[in-house]
Amino acid sequence: GRTEFAPGEDAHIVGDCVKHVLRELPSSPVPASCCTALLEAFRLETKEARINAMHSAISETFPEPNRRLLQ
Asked: Which Pfam families does this chain map to (predicted)?
């Protein structure tokens, strides 16, 4: 429910909430069939090439619900 947090609140609380939701999903947000494309993208030399390749891997290999979750 909350979308705003006070400056003194622990930032880890938000991360813990997100992790809890992801753990409760019926399937992994990153399908096993998409891991190869992401690993190949990660191995590229330059940061810009990695980012572009990861974007392409997600848009081309991830099912629509998984893409929307990442967005």
From this structure: RhoGAP (PF00620)
